[in-house]
Amino acid sequence: MTYPTTSAERVAYANKIIASQTFSTLVGAQFSEISPTSAELRVPLREDLRQHHGFAHGGLLSTMADIALTFMGATAIGPNVLTSEYKINFLRPATGEELVARASVISGGKRQAVTRCDIFSVQAGEEKLVATALGTIVKSDAPPVKGAEILAEANET
């Protein structure tokens, strides 16, 4: 396999990896766009993903940030990566029909990348910024337990 070069190929590749991650599929995470410089992850805001005030649970926003930050790090330093750390700021309660995380690479080196992610709530087509995150993504020496064949195909190139 050649590493995905078109947007549609990158989205299909990323969603194939997401499909191998039980927790990511549990929350309904799906990439809608991925380019060499940005990624967009979407999650429908279901009732079971809300906390007792009716807002999206902070753990959901953190999960979205982690996924988007890590996938952007992979575009900078290669497909076998892990999150070393991230920080998230919750700016306002997340409500609406859907959440959208948009990530980008700030800096990429040989072994680590620094990435950022903004998360928006969407209601009737209107977006509101609800959280922002900054993360450090590192190359992993450990092979993945799930989705290994997907990464192996990408590493062949």
TrEMBL record:
Organism for this UniProt entry: Deinococcus xinjiangensis
InterPro entries hit by this protein: HotDog_dom_sf, PAAI_dom, Thioestr_dom
EC number, as in UniProt: 3.1.2.20
SUPFAM superfamilies to which the protein is assigned, alphabetical: Thioesterase/thiol ester dehydrase-isomerase (SSF54637)
Protein name per its UniProtKB record: Medium/long-chain acyl-CoA thioesterase YigI
Protein family per UniProt: Belongs to the YigI thioesterase family.
Domain Thioesterase, chain residue ranges per copy: 53-123
Class of this enzyme: hydrolase
Alphabetic keyword roster: Hydrolase
Keyword Lyase appears in the UniProt entry: no
Substrates-to-products reaction catalysed: a fatty acyl-CoA + H2O = a fatty acid + CoA + H(+); a medium-chain fatty acyl-CoA + H2O = a medium-chain fatty acid + CoA + H(+); a long-chain fatty acyl-CoA + H2O = a long-chain fatty acid + CoA + H(+)
